[in-house]
Amino acid sequence: MKSRFEVALFIERNRLPAGSMAIDRIYFGHETCQDLLPSPLQAYELATRCIERNCKITLVTPFLRDTGLSKCRRLIDSLVSFTEEIEIVCSDWGLLNCLCNDKISQPIISRYLCGQHVDPRLDRIINPSPHAQHERLIRHVDGTLCQLKYKKPHDILAGHYRSISFDRKSVIEFFSDRGVKRCEISNAIQGIDVSGWSNLSYSLHVSDVPIALMKRCPGEDEDFRLPAPCGSCSFENVEWQYPDLPVKVFRKDNALYYSHSSAPLNLNELPIDRLIYRINDARAF
Amino acid sequence: MPRRYRRIIAPVSDVEDTQRLIDEGADELYCGYLPNEWIKIFGEADVFSRRQGRSSNIGALEQLDAIIKCAQKADVPVHLALNSKYSRFQELYLSEILKQFEDMGGSAVITSDLGLILELNNRKSPLKTHLSTMAGVFNCASINFFIEQGVSRVVLPRELTIQEIKKLCSSMPDVSFEVICMLQRCQFMDSWCGFYHGVKLHSTHPCAFEYENQTSGLSIAWSHDPAFEGHGCQLHWVAKGVPISNLATNDFILPSCSACFLSELLSSNAHYFKVAGRGFPNEIIIKSVRFMRSVLDAILDDHKGNGCAIDIVELYMNTFGTKCTPERCYYRIK
User: Fold this and answer.
1) Residue B230 to residues A268, B86, B196, Cα–Cα distance (Å)
2) Residue A125: φ, ψ to 5°
3) Which residues 1-60 of chain A have a CB within 8 Å of chain B?
4) Fewer beta carbons within 10 Å, N or C terminal of chain B?
5) What ipTM, to 2 d.p.?
């Protein structure tokens, strides 16, 4: 039985996996660092191999400085001249606007622009897991001793934390008029609540949720006092540990993520038609 | 008071501080708003602006009105920070506050939310739109996108280097640019930090919070997140067995500052200089405004050839009681 979901694989370092995999689309590029985008030649070679495998392609792009924007446009222009079917995931307002104005390719709102709430601690606000161990005595500045207790959030607040900024009629119509038909979101642990206005489609990144972006990577041993290792990236995921978090947090290049691959309970009710996996987590829900 | 061309924007969290900030040299003020009606539904976290808590925000319309009226006497505009990520669940509340702020004579809204920008355009609001640093505009094309949507001023991201700021400002001379010049630096980028800003309630020392008296037994304080330990950059992370340090600056003791770069910024197109730290202790804000005013005026006098030199490092020491270090330098921090 054909799944209703298109399956995409977000490859690392622009390297296609060996062997065959039951995937419909390849994501390549970089979400967070303009210096790690592929060159036009690398992108062309990758695109050629994808097309040979009957895989569609999506280029992922990060936020951009002026120099990066020029470089990125050259990359996109070279890819578009090769295949018009390519999608471009945009994390930069300027690039998004340029592609919309020039009617180039199929621009997509990235999960960095969609306005999703991604702090893993939000889960303990919404879901009534045990809070007893954190209920304790605290003292007010006026001297009053108080018992601090957990308060269940209003349904409106819970809905707010599960929703995304992009999911508003005015915003969707604004971008729909400009040719944007797809938005990407992350598999946030507190759950997802997006409507299905205006035939907009959503892609769900299954494996990881980006929490925070840094301007630069830390130096050795995660030391921010040391120079950033630009040009000699280690490409390793480094776990950042903190007690009481329900998820594993790790740094990948200049961004912090958490791992969460359990399916949203309401997946079949959401307007999601594409699932995006990382190479090490290519399994279906 | 004549309006100055190069202006300092200061945060105000309390009606009583309004006049004092103006007297110390603030040319514009900005604030957040968090009334009880919203707290009952949304709590005190950063749901309406990126600053959490009652003490960092104005809590009642009457207070907001009083701040605007006081500031208007000195021809000082007041801007409202609405710089969070909003959802469809908040649209009605936002419309309500926009109307109220317009009626009170507010000047501008500081926002990064496209939905809110579109709302301001649709209602042909008299409020100006200032693009918050939360929007994350790092290139001319991004700035142009928001200018096309009616934004009248752009607050540049803190993560830009001095060279990048100068290049952006000089290549877009018709755009009004604001730079953050003092307080609060963090390794996480403002525009893409997803750690939520909640209210930390300490077990070890007294703090301010709402509580309910009980007829018998202890009073009760409620929280959506009793376990909240701080912003993401304040948590004690460990990687490979080693604590991760230097994620954020401790401005209470040694305020981060860009005073040494003001001269370079002034020679580009940056005309507005913002003191961050909304919700910080009043004295730190007052001192920061006073310090930046002194530096800015001295540099402007120097540009006119009046030869009024100032030792910025010595002034910092005299103002904050501690010697500045390169680690606290806003645009030297890597």
Assistant:
1) 35, 22, 9
2) -75, -45
3) none
4) N
5) 0.94
From CA B251, how far away is CA B324, in angstroms rounded? Answer: 11
CB distance B168 to B160 below 8 Å: yes
* Cα of B197 to nearest chain A Cα, Å: 10
Q: From the CB of residue B300, how many other CB atoms can be counted at a distance below 10 Å?
A: 17
Instruction: Please give the backbone phi and psi of residue A195, each rounded to the nearest 5 degrees, phi first.
Output: -90, 180
Q: Which region, left, alpha or beta, applies to residue B68 given φ > 0 means left and ψ of -120 to 50 means alpha?
A: alpha
- Contacts A174 to B, Cβ<8 Å: 114, 118
The residue of A100, A124, A140, A239 whose CB has the most chain B CBs within 10 angstroms, and thus the best one to mutate to test that interface, is: A140
Q: How is residue B231 annotated by DSSP? A: -
Task: Look up tokens 């995409």; give the residue.
Answer: A8
pTM: predicted TM-score of the whole model, two decimal places:
0.94
Cα(A191)–Cα(B69) distance, rounded to whole angstroms?
44
- Chain A contact for B122, CB < 8 A? yes
Over residues A143-171, mean pLDDT:
95
Within 8 A by CB and 6+ apart from B165, the residues are B156, B177, B179, B265, B268, B270
Three-state SS across A7-42?
EEEECCCCCCCCCCCCCCEEEEECCCCHHHCCCHHH
Q: Cβ–Cβ of A140/B209 closer than 8 Å?
A: yes
Q: Is A163 on the interface with B (CB under 8 A)?
A: yes
What's the burial of A242, exposed, middle or buried (CB within 10 Å: 0-12/13-18/19+)?
A: middle
Contacts of A135 in chain B (CB under 8 A): 226
CA A28 – CA B228 distance, rounded (Å): 37
For an interface test with B, which of A102, A168, A217 has the most B Cβ atoms less than 10 Å from its Cβ?
A168
Confidence category of residue B1, pLDDT binned at 50, 70, 90: very low
A264-284 burial: b if 16+ Cβ within 10 Å, else e: beeeeebebebbbbbeeebee
Is the Cβ–Cβ distance between B139 and B191 less than 8 Å?
Answer: no
| SS3 at position B98 | helix
Residue ranges of A 80-99 with Cβ closer than 8 A to chain B: 92-98
- On average, the pLDDT of chain A sits at 90
Mean pLDDT of A169-174: 95
Instruction: Read off the DSSP letter of residue B2.
Output: P
Share of chain B above pLDDT 70, in %: 96
Q: Which of B5-14, B109-118, B182-191 has the highest mean pLDDT?
A: B109-118
Check whether A177 has a pLDDT greater than 80.
yes
Closest CA to B298 of B310, B289, B290: B310
> What are the chain B neighbours of A151 within 8 Å (beta carbons)?
222-224
